[in-house]
Fold this protein.
Amino acid sequence: NKSLVGRTDKPYGSSRKRKGKKYSLTLNWNKKKYADGYELRYSTKASMSPAKSKFVSAKTGSTEKYVLKGLKTSKTYYIQVRAYRNTLDSSTKDYGKWSKTLKYSF
């Protein structure tokens, strides 16, 4: 069963800000045509286990963005994103494949 949304392009960091000892990172990626939203996951391990997840609703335009906050200094983060489409009964989501991993160090 092939997903309508497919694989999401690798995200990229467009800006970062420091507040005290923590950073925030603005992530951008290209919009997928049939996506209702995106799941973003990030971890300090390349295996992505354990990973934290955030869900982002799809916006209008050709790119999407999300600001990850509370990232620690002297750490490397591995970040992936995937698109999803709500099913007809809205009880489940049809997920695309995870993007290639963005590796970002502070």
